[in-house]
Each structure stands twice: as structure tokens, then as C-alpha cells.
Records
---
Amino acid sequence: MRRTACTRLSGRFSDQKGASVTVKRFLTPVLFGLLLDSQSSLRAEPAQVEFSFGAIADCQYCNVPDNGGVRKYRLSVEKLQACVEHFNTLDLAFVTHLGDFIDKDFASFDAVGPIFEKLKAPRYHVLGNHDFSVADDLKHKVVAKLGMDSRYYDFKVKGWRYVVLDGNDISFHAYPSDSTEYAKAVAYYEQNKITSPKWNGAVGPEQILWLRNVLEKAAQQNEKVILFCHFPIFPENKHNLWNAEEIIALLEQYPCVKAYINGHNHQGNYGTKNGIHYLTLKGMVDTEQTSYAVISTTENTIHVAGHGREPDRDMVVH
């Protein structure tokens, strides 16, 4: 638009004696100013990174052959080792694993656990359905084996509140088949006429009340919130929590919620809804190529630097 305006101005006065000099004198400082503005924009400093954290989904180790399938269970040891070595070269506020640390067998924890413990940054686990694919009499030991004090919890880093949810509250995986909790899962599944696969789960009423209280406090303290869970809730997908819509409705009541990050769907996924970003990280276990991310926060952006199969992504927050 500026070039068009200048052309018209030059043409209007070109047939008047001496006008071309006047026009040049008028346009020179204007154009020079525009040039300076352009150069200033090019020199603009990038947004200041507040901090970064590492994120892994579905390491899912197990000592079984892949039999030509997509999932390379045994290779997860090598992938996790390389990932931890990379993370240890970075200045990370923490590292989170988003569930399904193992595929099955309680002994699998002893293969990947010591590797994860070599991280220099604080470590946080999220419970996945496969983490409970162990003998019934060992299911109650999973939480402690992962070094977790609680099945769901929250923590704060520089004005950001991180909320870790347990999508196995109501589950066919997390409890012995003869337990009261298992019977409750059967009743919940039938009463709510759920058609979603039984390897998903739901967040229970007590945890939802806890979540509401955490979000209330975060809003009062002007904190931004990112949630971690193993199970997705958006976009619509067969891997989603059984009560995904209930959780979304709760999150949308709090503008402080900026993102929900999960695993479970090894293909990965992404969507936004009413100002909240929903990111599913690709599974590390799939294919010979690894997958993980370094996620950085700025005042108005959550930047995902993907590694292996995980793509880069910028998620703008308001």
C-alpha cells in the first residue's frame, strides 16, 4: 500500500516545475524511516524462554520380540538411554514420562527404571494402562515401584502449575479382577453404556473434586496450567478417556488452563478447543525411530521441539 501511495504522489506533481525535488525531499525521510522500522523488526529479540522440560510417551518396554510388528519393545531400552543422555545435556526444569513405561511384566520396570533414574532433572511419572499389566498380586506395588507418592498430584514451576491426572481411577487394568474397584469399573462401563475400548479408563469423582480445587487455587494465584495424563480427551478418538467430555467441560471453566498433554495413542494427535491445546505425543516404542520432545514455555507460547518421529509445534497461549 505504501508503494502505491508514493507512486500516485510522484505522478501528481511530476508535471510541475521543481516539484520532483520537493517530492524527493519529502519521500526520502519517510522511506528511510520505513527501512529502519523494517530492520528493527528483523533484529527483534525472540521471546524469552521461561524454562524447558522433557516429555516422553509410551516407552512401553518388554523383553519380547516384535515379530515384525510396528512396536519394537526391546529397543525401548536403547531409545530411552539415548533420550536420557540427550536430556542430561540440557537445562531442564523436569522430565515427565506420560504413562506406559512398560508393556507388561513387573520385571520390566527393572530394565528401564534405572535408566530413567539417571536423569539429572527432577523426574515425574504418569500412570498408564500398561503399567498395570502385571500379575494381580503385584498391581498394588506399581505406584511405589515408579517412585510416586500419589497416583495423581500437582507441582509448580515459575508461575506454571502442572497437574498430573490418573486416568486409571476407574479401570479394568489397574485392579485385581476380584477386587471391589474392578467391580466398580464393570458397573460404570455398563451403566454409562460405554463403547470405548476397555483398555481406556476414567477419572473418578474424588479426583475430579481434587482437580477442581487445584484449578481454583491456580486461578486465584494467576498461574498458567498444563495437565498431564496418559489418556487423551480431545480430539475425538477411540483412545480417549471414558469421561473425556466431563473433563473437558471442567477445564473450560478455567481460562488459566492452557494445555493438556498425553500419550496412549501412539500415532500422536493435536487439536485446540476453546483456547486449550490438546497434544498427544507419539509413542517411543513404535518403529526403530525414537520419539520424545523438549517443551519450552514463553510468556505467550508453548514450543514443542520434537525429536525422532515427534514434530515441532508452536502452541500460542493467551
---
Amino acid sequence: MIIENETYYQPDVRGWRLAAEKVPASDLKSRQRRDDPQAERSSSSAQRALKVVIAGGGTGGHLFPGLAIAREFMIRNSATRIVFVSTGNPLEKTVLSRAGFELQCIQVAGIKGRGIWNQAKSVLKIPGAILAARGLLKKFSPDLIVGLGSYSAGPVVMSAWLMRVPIAIHEQNILPGITNRILARFADRIYISFENTRSRFSPRKVYWTGNPVRREFLETAARTDERVTSETGRKKFTVLIIGGSQGAHRINMVVIEALELLHDADRVHFVHQTGEADEKTVRDAYRQKSISATAQSFFDNMAEQYRQADLIVCRAGATTVAEITAMGKAAIFIPFPYAADDHQTLNAADLADAGAAELIAEKELTADMLGTKIKYYMENPQDLADMAATAREHGKPDAAQNIVDDCYRLLSS
């Protein structure tokens, strides 16, 4: 499994805002609660405890929004019980264990892009997965199923539909994946991250909520700026390079070449998440060129790294896009070209077309191009600030609260 578009770290999220065509009175009350923290806490604690199954995961792009939603449910009522159901890969086991959530596993595999023989084997697993999911649901008796869109969500949502359990699904990317395209007909609610996704689903079910972002990002964004400084005491222009927890080899190598173009080395500082394979190579390159840098395979404090960055060079997974817009950061997106249906390019284009980011296709990426853009934004701070401000306008920092508010409405209707 290739996972280059997301970073793996424990999330802690909350947030809310409804953006459907019509806003009911209950939404206006919820918006008032955002301005009154005490009222918000009081309202949250008054909501009844639920039993919720969150189905799907596999990659950080699916799992982290689910964790954000789960934490918001727990904020509303600490007696709420949450169970995640997925295939139980190492990422899911590690992250959910650290976050304190239960994981139940079913045996199911993806179908798309796996070759005829593997597709056949995957299809044969579906009936057993549905039976296993049905058994889990009968034992747990959930009030609600939340599907995250990965193939492991399919059997759980289908079982819930057969058992007449209310169903909500969340689509992270601008182009819905095959699982959500299938499950949409069975869902009571469909939450989307990009407004342009609305036309791909039944209008009566769709709510444009945004993609949930970890609470630490929202809290960190408001902190006073503290940047790396040069020997003269000036704040250095900080560039954050992230290609996911495994890094992005192509981006790493282009950045190393682009360092030759940076003649004002004292003015810039790089924070570079390299992935394990390229850590030594990248670190040595910065050292040899005497360029200030913090290069390591993985960062636990990504919110802090985002905060200090003036410019971010990254992939365009849905979680990364949501974090950048919530933080209000200028970004150069280099989408992972092998993502399903090229959805990363579509995610990035939505912002680039609005002037909220730059987009460079990996096949067109060169050291000269990247170096030139970094130099341009170093020398044109107003253009950088304008792009960051436009990105913030596209953020939906309240997505998780949005979703949970509507789930309670769904269950009370």
C-alpha cells in the first residue's frame, strides 16, 4: 500500500459549520454557541450518550476525519461509546490504540486497480464481511453508523441499511471514491469537504461541512508568532516540506537540487519531513550547502511546524488541504500522481483556481521551477500573504462539530 499523501499522527479535533442551501434555526443557535464557549459546553453536555460505529480507515486521509468526528461525539457526552470497524492494518491499530478507541476488524479488500485475480478474491470476501459486520452491529446495537469512504466501510454500511440503522457518510476528496458513490444511495446523510462535490450526490442528502481538522491545529493557529531567526536577528523565511509520513522521494530530490538556486541562504530555514528512506541524504544535502534546516523522517508536532511556516510545499491529500486552509497558509501543492482517479490534483486545483495555492504537476516539476517559486515568495511577501488569506477563506475549521450537530438532528427527526 502506498501512502504518500497524509501524515500519521494522533489527532484531536473539534469544529462545526453547516453550509447547506437552507440554514434551520437550530444551526443559528449552534453558531451562537461558537461565540459563547460556556454555552457551547453546556449544550454539548446536555446531549444524550450514543453508540456510534465509525466504519472505514486504511489511510490517514480516511482515518483522521473519523477520529475528529469521534472526539466531537465524546465532547458532547463522555458516556458515548465509539467503535471503529475496519481491516485493522498497522496504522489503524497504532493510532486508534493511542487515541483510546476500540477497533473491531473485518476481512475485506479493495477491488479497484488490483488486477482481475485479486478483484475476484476481493469480491468473494464481501458476503463474509457483511455477515461479520452484521454480527458486530447486532452485538453493539448502534444508534448511528458513520462511513468514512474506504472499502472497509462497505460491508458495515450495507449491514446497517439491512438492519435499518441510520447512516451518515463523509467524503474527504473533491471527487468521491467508488465506495461512497455506491453507499450514497443507502445513506441518510452525505457530508462533503468541497462544495463542488455537491452535484455528484442527491441534493436532499448532502451537507457541505468541510473536512474535520484536529483541534491542535485550530488552537496553534491563534498563537503568537515565534520564528527561527538568523544571526542578524531577522526572522527567517521558513519553508515546510511534507510528503507524508513516508516522505515523497521525488519532492525530496527536487528540493535538494533547488537548494543550489538559493543564494541568500541566511534568509531561509527549511523544515523537511523526509520519510525514513531519504532522511540521511536530505539532511546531508542541507549541511553540505550550509543551509539552515530541520530535516527528519517524521514530526509529531505538525501543527507547530505548520504555524511557523511561511510557505508549505506538499502533496494534496484531503487532510493536508483541510489543515492548510484551516491554518491559513500559503502552499505549493505537488499532487501524488498515482492517487485514485487523480483526486489529489482535483483537490489542489480547487484552491489553485481561487488563488489560494499554487499547483505543480509532478511530471512538470523541476528544481529550477521550485527554486524560482520559493525565491519569488521570499521577495514578495504581500503576494504570499494574499495567498494565505485566500486559503483561510476556504477553510472549514468547524467541520467536526458541524457533522455531529447534524447527526443529532438526524437521530431526533
